[in-house]
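User: Show me sequence and structure for the first protein, then do the same for the second.

Assistant: Starting with the first protein.
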Amino acid sequence: MSAIFHFSGMLSVLLLLICTCAFVRSVVPQLLDTHRTGWKGVFWKMARIGERLSPYVAAACIVQAFVVLMGI
């Protein structure tokens, strides 16, 4: 089964995508800033979510790690 079909897996993929995009934008900003529209704009938007909501994203990552490790 794909991770997309399980809510827990989908949430993990989404959180990893947000964290990865925010990290890439902090290291190489011109890589994501040049593509603000189109399908590549999704990655720019994920990076913005990661930057602006970083305390909430961090809390969600901690909760998700606990859920994955405990098998809930």
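Switching to the second protein now.
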Amino acid sequence: MAHNCLQCIKYLMFVFNLLFWLGGCGILGVGIWLAVTQGNFATLSSSFPSLSAANLLIVTGTFVMIIGFVGCIGAIKENKCLLLSFFIMLLIIFLLELTVVILFFVYTDKIDKYAQRDLKKGLHLYGTDGNIGLTNAWSIIQTDFRCCGVSNYTDWFEVYNTTRVPDSCCLEFSENCGLHSPGTWWKAPCYETVKIWLQENLLAVGIFGLCTAMVQILGLTFAMTMYCQMPGFL
């Protein structure tokens, strides 16, 4: 009976990690695709220029693939060393995610102030050589969310040193419409607009986070159960 139980856990563990690995391949593929096409949503931060959507997806996909691969081989070969390595890596990632979430809620106000200050610095890179990703990102955000600037549309005045905003701030887009009067521009601040949008979709974000945590806990449970059920050290 114990042997049958071990075999059942073994194949469940293998299928679980195979799906985990395939998920990593998908994330990595999307990240590479974004990087190759320069990605519409590059980083908006001037302090962390490498913190782009493409780079984050590539790093995340690579880690997920490595962890899934170690789990697959550990399960199918019934190798306790690999199973323990899988458990430790997944546990470290889970604890890091938990720490980040706790720190985010504890220091929300400070993070808000720093993010707005950093985003305003990033505005000065808009339209400059080598920053097409940042330029596209701001254009898409302002068009889709019907907003302008970080905390106010006047943020752009400091960038252009005149009463002007990007054309993506216009109520009705046309070439050089950002030179027209403020009455033709979106007035809502982008930072608050996006923040409100996230709060309105908090349930979806929460469900996604909960599902991610449950998948990781399931993986930890499978790995430790199989590790403890296996006799000796393989």
